[in-house]
Specification:
With 284 residues, the chain is mainly alpha-helical. It contains 7 helices and no strands. The chain is 71% helix and 0% strand. The chain is elongated. The model has no long low-confidence stretch (mean pLDDT 91).
Length: 284
């Protein structure tokens, strides 16, 4: 990788990538929302949006990598990248904070309010017990998801992946490329195993526990929190896999490897979010 000693702040020229990627994300968003609401074209639009977005990002990040390897990125650009990734992770914290807040509101505010004396005339049989099927009792009976064994195993997997990615980072700073490759490969593999267990957990929830996205506020918050976290694990694993390929191509040096650091920051964020999920969703 270039030593990035460019004496200026490189500003790329006009590019199609932001608008092209936005089109793909819009298709994905509209398609996903239509899909969960039973639209016939929702699945096709969602999948097409995913493919479109992946193709756009492949081209976009390819250009960014070429700029970095061409020695166009100065120290100022590196600082810009670090601030950008920091704000991106902050926005993700706020994203998950909204869902955790929704769960807190439902359990600690809405349920006690519906069960108080003022609402007994409307909902005489409602009890402020979690999980809850709602005051109207329209939700089919279901069984909650406990912390054992899969959630606990997944917790161990993510904690171990945090160790392996840190090991890879220290190896990169010491110039030990083979250890970097081993650490990153182990981290990506652990992320893939995590997702495999989560897929199995979802199948078990739907088929054996009758726990679905429509299972009241418990079902909706469970699948929204764990599902979005699983999506982030998938994205983080893809980021680390790309970094792994770049390490194998010799793109990084002990002094200049922010792409690795940015992906590692994201992965540690995913780990921390899971610890919150593990406690709040599976234990409480």
């Amino acid at each position: 990788m270039s030593s990035s000693k460019a004496p200026y702040y490189y500003v790329p020229g006009p590019t199609r990538h932001p608008i092209v990627t936005s089109i793909g994300l819009a298709g994905f968003g509209f398609g996903a929302s239509s899909w969960v609401n039973g639209s016939t074209f929702g699945m096709i639009l969602c999948l097409a949006g995913i493919v479109w977005t992946i193709a756009s990002l492949y081209s976009w990040f390819g250009d960014a990598i070429s700029e970095a390897e061409g020695g166009l990125n100065s120290v100022n650009v590196d600082v810009s990248y670090r601030w950008s990734m920091s704000w991106f992770i902050f926005s993700e914290i706020m994203f998950f904070g909204a869902f955790f807040s929704a769960l807190f509101y439902a359990r600690s505010i809405a349920m006690p309010w519906l069960a108080d004396i003022d609402n007994k005339l409307l909902w005489p049989d409602f009890a402020a017990v979690w999980p809850n099927a709602g005051p109207a009792g329209l939700v089919d009976s279901f069984t909650t998801m406990g912390p054992w064994p899969i959630p606990t195993i997944n917790t161990a997997l993510l904690l171990l992946s945090g160790v392996t990615v840190t090991w890879a980072h220290h190896a990169l700073r010491e110039g030990k490329r083979q250890q970097v490759i081993q650490g990153l490969a182990a981290t990506v593999a652990l992320g893939a195993i995590f997702m495999g267990f989560q897929v199995y957990e979802y199948i078990h929830a739907y088929n054996d526990l009758n726990l679905k996205l429509t299972s009241g506020i418990y079902g909706s918050t469970f699948f929204m929190l764990t599902g979005f976290h699983g999506f982030h694990v998938t994205m983080g694993a893809i980021m680390l896999f790309v970094v792994l390929i770049r390490v194998m191509k010799g793109h990084f040096t002990p002094e200049n490897h922010f792409a690795f650091e940015g992906a590692a920051w994201y992965w540690h964020f995913v780990d921390v979010v899971w610890l919150g999920l593990y406690v709040v969703v599976y234990w409480m």
